[in-house]
UniProtKB/TrEMBL annotation:
Keywords: Membrane, Transmembrane, Transmembrane helix. The chain crosses the membrane at residues 32-52, 59-81, 107-128, 140-166, 186-204, 216-241, 261-280, 334-351, 357-374, 394-421. The keyword Membrane applies. The lineage of its organism: Bacteria, Pseudomonadati, Thermodesulfobacteriota, Desulfovibrionia, Desulfovibrionales. It comes from the Bacteria. The keyword Membrane applies. Residues 448-562 form the STAS domain. Gene3D superfamilies: STAS domain (3.30.750.24). InterPro entries: SLC26A/SulP_dom (IPR011547), SLC26A/SulP_fam (IPR001902), STAS_dom (IPR002645), STAS_dom_sf (IPR036513). GO terms for cellular component: membrane. GO terms for biological process: transmembrane transport. This is STAS domain-containing protein.
Amino acid sequence: MTLVPTTPAYIKLFPFLSWLQTVSKETLKLDINAGISGAIIVLPQGVAFAAIAGLPPEFGLYSAIVPAIVAALFGSSHHLISGPTTAISLVIFENISQFYAPFSTEYIGAVFSLTLLTGIIQLLFGVIKLGTLVNFVSHSVVVGFTAGAAILIGFSQLGNFTGIKFPSGSKFYEKIPFLVENIQEVSIPASIIALTALSISVLFQRLAPRIPGMLVALIAGSLAAMGFGGAEAGIELVGALPSRLPSFEIPHMSFSTVQQLGSSALAIAILGLTEAVSIARSVAMQSRQHLDTNQEFVGQGLSNIIGSFFSCYSASGSFTRTGVNYTAGAKTPAAAVFAACFLTIILLLIAPVTAYLPIPAMAGVLMVVAFKLIDFHHIKGIMKTSRQEFGVMLVTLLATLFLHLEFAIYVGVVLSLLLYINKTSHPELASITLQRDDAGISSFVEVTTENARECPQIKIVRLRGEIFFGATHNIIEDLHKEIDESSTHTKLLVILKAVTFIDIAGCEMFSTEREAFREKGCEMYLCSLNPEVRGMLHRAGVLQHFGTDHIFANKRVAIKKLAASVDTEKCITCTARIFDECASNTPAFSVQQLDSSNRPAII
């Protein structure tokens, strides 16, 4: 007996021990390069996201350090990087600002309490194995969501790329018309800096992918900005950052706090998990990594729980940082740890240097990242293979663009579930018949043409799928289409070999329809039941109702019994003659009187 290897208990508790064994000199080099790029990319992001959340800028950076390390160590994805995100920042602001004034001490304290509650909920989801729920987020949903988010990221950088100040809160589709109307306001220096960074980033990715091209692009952009005169010439720079680390502080937690923030924490927990796992899956499809969604839930939960004690607000998987991490060549979660460590060093040692980093150069690099996130290969594959899946992908993409980001995944999931329910509620019912090939071997095949030979007295159909309450109506309709008022069939054999599940409604359907077909002069028989289906039919009393003479072990036994009980007078003039038993049902002189074209049908 072959023993199936099991994951040691200490690996389940400390999952980082598994990938630490794969770290080598080569992977370490790639991870360090990716970490440097990720640390620099998150600088303006952290500041911007903190402002959206109603928090001082340093809290956005803290949230890009502690949660990133914890999620990398205790999560499942090799490339996902956690940190502040646009959607969660907006949700936090909308929920907490109704109780406290943004940027106030009370507001900041409530945010940390909310983060702790969010992490506890996420951890519980992982512990009780709710990660399988993410399986309902189909591949098409992930592709559509990723493409939509990539477009939003690209448009969000359009202002920084051109130097134009777009109206606050403007939608992505409003930016192009506004840009055309205000084309004279485009900053030539900003655009040149952005194009320089974009071109160098693309060039290094194609010609020298192992070199941190994004870092080179940002350095080149900084030099170009200095050449134009820097801030004095009107070029926006990241600016000097506060050089201090997050302090340890226990978030306030009480019954009233839970009452006040509980519903918000649940919403953010679900949104954060959906974002993180969707991003992880989108990257895993390209890297071909196997994900453990329950472990990812645990990692996200722990990252927010621990982060709440170190001045961090709710974090999740970051599209941009994960994209940068993957395209920069990261191989293990160590890249996320390095990115957090480098960001810490930047805060402590070289924070003033970041004052010279131009925002347009960041925009150019982020444009490249956004483009790389669009999975054109899988989009083409979905378009070719399934119109339904393409519809799911397209609706998810449009929902991402035109609805709040937190609703886009839900729209895709609901649509996927509706299509799944619709598909499962229509089990495949096909007529089959017996046919002999050129070698003289007979086999059962589907009746695909009107001229196919079928026994006029015995109708054979095969059901494939699950028989449950949502499918019974469609099954009844399909069965009655096969045996209509003009049918000469007196026996209906239903093959259930491919039926894997049946509920009480399905059992009642067979009992009821047996009587309905009897009124039409047709007897219903069942065969090839798998043990689970047989057990359910037995417990529901269906087998007893049918009787042992109407239940058969397989098709061959069923045909032998049914062919022996047909009206032999009808067999005399029958030209189908598809069964071996047909010869014994027909007198010898009748066979000789048949047209020679029908003789090959006798098997």
